Amino acid sequence: MELRHLRYFVAVADAGSLTVAAEQKLHTSQPSLSRQIRDLEQEVGVQLLNRGVQGIELTAAGKAFLDHARMALLQAEAAKQAALRSRRSRASRSVSCRAPRSICCPR
């Protein structure tokens, strides 16, 4: 399961429509988005959405999955931010020192 699948699923759930999510939120084609959602459902092993002419409706499994998908995306973003903070913190603490040529490069 990839974060991309979770982002797509959350966007579809929020939009209430595969077409709206594809065109307005994700800027991708509807058939491609439908395929990604089907792949996610296959990987999870349950149907997450009921598809109809009026849009989509989350199944009971989809509602349960949505909460966890949102948390996973928040955790992934928090992990990214922690790594960036660590990099900035480490860069500000770096120390540079130089040794005389006679010490580091013997003749």
TrEMBL record:
Pfam families: HTH_1 (PF00126). It comes from the Bacteria. Residues 88-107 are annotated as: Disordered. Keywords: DNA-binding, Transcription, Transcription regulation. Residues 1-59 form the HTH lysR-type domain. Residues 92-107 have a biased composition (Low complexity). Belongs to the LysR transcriptional regulatory family. This is LysR family transcriptional regulator. It comes from Bradyrhizobium septentrionale.
